[in-house]
């Protein structure tokens, strides 16, 4: 079966939306709970995330990015928006993607799935201490200082673990860039 | 515009994760808006978020899929106009500086140094800083992260020259003494994680200089 997000983008297919909702809704809800939302709020935010995907599906078609990454950026922005209502720049990342897509050559889109797969493998291969700081940053939204406090580490150690983890992921993608 | 000083990888990762405190996120967003290199890095960093969320253990939804508000429209996100920069100002801060940098009402902090606090939601303090030519740029250099993005003019220190678009993202324990260049005022937007007043910083620098 074709990628449901692609079907949503190209045909505005409500069945594709339900499929996406069942696949991503429970994971976005889990993400919102990790970021401190209670279950009811987390579900609201998950619904809002997927409805935003529905409304902007045509934008996705022109981007040809990875569905999970796109949904992550929407979920992250909604969470930040809920935390700091009037933040004027919180929409940047999606806007940035929109701009970045025009800088990407058409044949690069083919390997997006490959890229996402490599990132996943590289993440899984990280030593636990590096994986922990990355997960606390992305999934719990902790700042460098908060991570240092949580793990009882010097700030410099947290930052250097992040840099090393990112360097490994960058290297895993090198021949695809 | 040729940008040579970028955000630290750890800062960019935190920004991609949605974990950078408010004021720092504003300056990071402003730099990213000016910097194609950091936009590409951000795309890679966002894939990490996608992978981590995809691997989360799903939590059951209490409700079925919501009813859809009509057919998917051609909504283009928050609108291209909202993201247009204005002159020297990248869009994330353009809306906070109505009338541009020449209309800012500066508060004098000391000889050749002015600031203007920008309203911000979230943690930290955000402000514009204007420094006359050939003067020290005040920095607290301890107690928390600080990001300084040049909007006009330039300054230099042991790590090089910072021109519009360049961002100083240095570890708090790095001692450096930035000085503005001789051509015109240097205007930066500065985010501090801890809201220390520049006045006290200036006083301390003065003390250090006098040998106290």
Q: Could you provide a short overview of the structure?
A:
Chain A has helices spanning 4-11, 14-34, 39-55, 57-63, 67-83, 92-101, 112-124, 128-140, 144-151, 155-173. Chain A has 177 residues and is an all-alpha fold. Chain A folds into 2 domains: 1-104, Rna Polymerase Sigma Factor, Chain: A (Orthogonal Bundle); 105-177, Arc Repressor Mutant, subunit A (Orthogonal Bundle), CATH 1.10.10.10.
Structural notes for this entry:
The complex is a heterodimer of chains A (177) and B (212). Chain A is built from ten helices and no strands. Chain A has 177 residues and is mainly alpha-helical. Chain A has two domains: 1-104, Rna Polymerase Sigma Factor, Chain: A, CATH 1.10.1740; 105-177, Winged helix-like DNA-binding domain superfamily/Winged helix DNA-binding domain (Arc Repressor Mutant, subunit A, Orthogonal Bundle), CATH 1.10.10.10. In chain A, α2 (14-34) packs across α5. Chain A is flat. Chain B has 212 residues and is an alpha+beta fold. Chain B has a single domain (9-55, 85-210), classed as Sandwich (Jelly Rolls), CATH 2.60.120. Helices cover 27% and strands 19% of the residues of chain B. A six-stranded antiparallel β-sheet of chain B has the order 1-2-3-9-4-7. In chain B, β1 (107-110) and β2 form a beta hairpin. The relative contact order of chain B is 0.18. The model of chain B has no long low-confidence stretch (mean pLDDT 85). At the A-B interface, α2, α3, α4, α5 and α6 of A face α1, α2, α3 and α4 of B.
| Second rung of CATH, namely the architecture of chain B | Sandwich
Radius of gyration of chain B: 20 Å
Which spans of chain B have pLDDT < 50 for at least 5 consecutive residues? none
CATH class category name of the largest domain in chain A: Mainly Alpha
**CATH homologous superfamily annotation of chain B:** Jelly Rolls
The tally of domains of chain A stands at 2
Shape of chain B: elongated
Largest sheet of chain A: none
CATH classification, class level of chain B: Mainly Beta
- Say what the CATH topology of the largest domain in chain A is: Rna Polymerase Sigma Factor, Chain: A
Average of the residue pLDDT scores of chain A? 82
Q: How many individual β-strands of chain B?
A: 9
Helix proportion of residues of chain B, in percent?
25-40%
Following the backbone from N to C, one meets helices and strands of chain B in this order, namely: HHHHEEEEEEEEEH
The helix-and-strand class of chain B reads alpha+beta
Which protein chains make the most extensive interface, counting residues with beta carbons within 8 Å of the other chain's beta carbons? A-B, 90 and 70 residues
CATH topology name of chain B, in short, is Jelly Rolls
């Amino acid at each position: 079966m074709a990628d449901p997000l692609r079907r949503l983008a190209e045909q505005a297919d409500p069945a594709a939306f339900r499929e996406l909702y069942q696949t991503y809704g429970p994971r976005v809800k889990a993400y919102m709970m990790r970021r401190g939302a209670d279950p009811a709020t987390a579900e609201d935010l998950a619904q809002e995330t997927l409805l935003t995907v529905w409304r902007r599906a045509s934008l996705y078609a022109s981007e040809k990015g990875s569905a999970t990454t796109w949904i992550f950026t929407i979920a992250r922005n909604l969470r930040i928006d809920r935390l700091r209502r009037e933040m004027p720049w919180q929409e940047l990342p999606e806007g940035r993607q929109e701009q970045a897509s025009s800088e990407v050559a058409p044949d690069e889109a083919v390997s997006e799935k490959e890229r996402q797969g490599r990132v996943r493998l590289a993440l899984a291969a990280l030593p636990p201490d590096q994986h922990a700081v990355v997960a606390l940053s992305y999934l719990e939204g902790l700042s460098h200082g908060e991570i240092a406090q949580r793990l009882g580490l010097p700030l410099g150690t947290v930052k250097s673990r992040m840099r090393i983890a990112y360097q490994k992921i960058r290297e895993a993608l090198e021949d695809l860039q | 515009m040729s940008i040579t000083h970028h955000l630290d990888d750890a800062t960019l990762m935190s920004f991609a994760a949605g974990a950078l405190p408010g004021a720092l996120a504003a300056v990071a967003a402003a730099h990213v808006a000016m910097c194609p290199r950091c936009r590409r890095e951000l795309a890679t960093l966002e894939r990490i978020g996608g992978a981590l969320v995809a691997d989360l253990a799903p939590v059951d939804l209490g409700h079925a899929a919501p009813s859809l508000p009509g057919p998917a429209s051609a909504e283009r996100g928050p609108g291209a106009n909202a993201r247009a920069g204005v002159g020297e100002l990248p869009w994330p801060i353009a809306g906070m500086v109505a009338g541009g940098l020449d209309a800012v009402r500066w508060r004098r902090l000391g000889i050749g140094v002015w600031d203007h606090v920008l309203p911000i939601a979230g943690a930290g303090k955000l402000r514009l800083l204007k420094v006359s030519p050939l003067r020290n740029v005040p920095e607290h250099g301890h107690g928390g992260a600080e990001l300084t993005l040049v909007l006009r003019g330039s300054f230099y220190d042991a790590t090089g020259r910072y021109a519009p678009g360049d961002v100083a993202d240095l570890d708090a324990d790095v001692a450096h003494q930035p000085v503005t260049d001789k051509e015109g005022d240097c205007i930066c937007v500065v985010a501090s994680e801890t809201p220390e007043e520049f006045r006290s910083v200036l006083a301390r620098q003065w003390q250090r200089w006098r040998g106290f």
